[in-house]
Amino acid sequence: MTSRRIALTLLALLALGVAAVATMIALNHRDEQAAAGGPVTSNDASIARGLYLTRAGDCIGCHTARGGTPYAGGRGIETPFGTVYAPNLTPDRDTGLGEWSADDFWRALHNGRARDGRLLYPAFPYPNYTRVTRADADAMYVYLRSLPAVRQVNRAHELRFPFDLQPALAVWRALFFEPGAYRADAARDASWNRGAYLVEGLGHCNACHSKRNALGAPSGPLDLAGGLIPVQNWYAPSLTAADESSVVGWDVADVVALLRDGRSPRGTVMGPMSEVVLNSTQHLSNDDLVAIARFLQSLPATPPSARSSAGSKAATADAAARGARLYADRCAACHGERGEGVPGAYPALAGSRAVTMDSSANLVHIVLEGGFPPSTTGNPRPFGMPPFATFLSNDDVSDLLSHIRRAWGNRAAPVSPLEVARYRDTGRP
């Protein structure tokens, strides 16, 4: 190749690189002209509205360290790429939002950009919050500004290379993030649209209830088909599949009770969803809970997953006998000899979708770690389950859960000791 051709090739590559960078920059500054807003008024009504909306968004859940001051940040959020630490949202001038304007706060929610121009990591669910209205964002800002200022220096994220670099984040955003707004469906009534707004936006339900690609991006705000939660290694079941957590066919009152109280005649929340009910949904109005229920019931149904039990190896007679004995010794006193449970106290295991869904992650976590439904106004003293991690080996848990998933008419694949070991480790799978 002649020197002239080499020079032309290098120039062409340089031009392509410059065009790619320019495109990426443009994609990372879309819709930022929308940041301007009107005057923001702080009064009792706007503060109360802001409190309600921050609860709807469960902001306290991430922005409060265990045992720490509410909203002062410091909680580590584990991701497949490292740990992101939630920042201080109190109005401290040096370490919190004290120097932030309402426009700055709106830009963070709507565009995923901090006051100093840094791109924010999507562990902060701005791909959902971008749908929040400016009026709601302003109310949240007013509430956060009303909190006592707490000086707590924000901890630097601990992310692996190259995910710790802003250019890498810019590429992710160019590929997977587009600022938007909630668009009401004119064919639906106000209640349904309110439910859609809460689920898609502040509720950011798909942040857990969806599968993610290798770069951590969900397929969209309406993807609620279930997925493993990288942060906690629990499985957030599909909200569209009848054999997982679809609420189609439920009475609306039962859906409302589950979100408000943490339990209903049709189910009980455990694991990460307990925190959502505790911090967020129990505080929502009945009208908003009904709206969410109606929206969830309107989701297009997805067919039941192909059961892996069809080709699974049956448990040996010894393993089946051990599982039955473990159940009789450890579980039957509460859940009944035939898995029938006790209404209002201990959930039934016979015919339970939580028992028979393909993923065994949640069952393993509950057996090993125990847990309680959230304490709510409607269920202030919930019955809980003790942890068995120190009493049961991986083989024990495997035999026990395999028995439960095959007994009393349940038809699900057995759980292997390897699966138990995978979820016993609190790290990422």
Attribute tags:
Cytochrome Bc1 Complex, Chain D, domain 2, 17 helices, mainly alpha, globular
Verbal overview:
The structure is a single chain. The chain is mostly helical and 429 residues long. The chain has three domains: 26-176; 190-297, Cytochrome Bc1 Complex, Chain D, domain 2 (Orthogonal Bundle); 308-424, Cytochrome Bc1 Complex, Chain D, domain 2 (Orthogonal Bundle), CATH 1.10.760.10. Helices cover 40% and strands 4% of the residues. It has a three-stranded antiparallel β-sheet with strand order 1-2-3, with no helix packed on it. The protein has a two-stranded antiparallel ribbon with strand order 4-5. A two-stranded antiparallel sheet has the order 6-7. It is built from 17 helices and seven strands. The protein has helices spanning 3-27, 44-56, 59-62, 102-111, 126-129, 134-145, 166-176, 190-202, 252-261, 272-279, 286-297, 317-330, 332-335, 353-356, 361-369, 394-404, 417-424; strands spanning 76-79, 82-85, 158-159, 227-228, 235-236, 263-264, 267-268.
Summarize this entry quickly.
This protein is mainly α and 429 residues long.
Distance between the termini: 50 Å
Rg value: 24 Å
Q: Classify the helix fraction into a percent range.
A: 40-55%
Give the helix/strand class: mainly alpha
Sequence of secondary-structure elements = HHHEEHHHEHHEEHEEHHHHHHHH
> Major sheet, described briefly?
3 strands, antiparallel
* Annotation, overall tally of beta strands: 7
Which sequence of strands runs across the widest sheet? Answer: 1-2-3
Portion of residues in beta strands equals under 5%
Give the low-pLDDT segments.
12-24
Average pLDDT confidence is 88
DSSP summary: helix tally: 17
Total count of domains: 3
**Based on CA inertia axes, which overall geometry fits?**
globular
